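Data deposition worksheet. Section B asks for the primary sequence of the deposited chain exactly as it was used as input, without tags or linkers unless they were present during the calculation. Section C holds the resulting structure in token form. Section D is free text for depositor observations; keep each observation to a single sentence. Incomplete worksheets are returned to the depositor.
Section A, Depositor: J.P.
Section B:
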Amino acid sequence: MGNDAAIVMQNVSFRYDGPLVLEDVSLTIDQRDFVCVIGPNGGGKTTLLKLVLGLIQPEPGGQIKVLGKAPEDAGADVGYMPQAAQLDPKFPVNVTDVVLMGRLAAHKVLGPYSRQDRQIARRSLDEVGLGAIAKRPFSSLSGGQRQRVLIARALACEPPLLLLDEPTANLDPAVQDDLYALLKRLNERLTVIMVSHDIGFVSVFFRTVICVNRTVHTHPTDELTTKGVADMYGREVRLLHHAKQTTPSADS
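Section C:
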């Protein structure tokens, strides 16, 4: 299995208690790729991420390597933003407090955050364009700002691989575009893999698309067709194939 790849799966299948959710998945994701995972609800997208994170194990015979390691050994090298962040927006924490949570994996024993932890948290906030609001209450932020803070939290473990499960859900289109542009910038130094239902702009921002509906197929975005996606979703879809320039805003 390729040690130079970000992720390698070979003959991976998975079921919870019933039928297979994923069947005979084999794929390779190169380092520094910018990947969007698409597919219908219940098709296995989040399950695919959980396998990469080592939260669940494949059926016997399947093999997974993440940055050349078993998934359970690669956790410190993977930044993860879950679909539903377990963080009450009314909880009295500020932006820096939230980002510092991403440093917990770096601590072998419980104790106060170090000066280095705080420097890394501030750098992560600067990278998502929110350094100026580091002390603002998390509850006061807009939806787009909260998503950026949670991305900064994922960056705080200084990972080479960033996984995001539907980070643009429930955001206005303009804010979504700003977030895509941020991820594209992060992709200059990281492998970025994002699950999304916003398939219309997949070909604008991403280099590779992984189509998941029990089976998995990987395509360069310029080979993705409207018919192929419609067959997977069982309905018509609209894909855009043009360049789009966006300017991220700290208020998004």
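Section D:
Residues 135 and 151 are 17 Å apart (CA to CA).
The longest strand covers residues 5-15.
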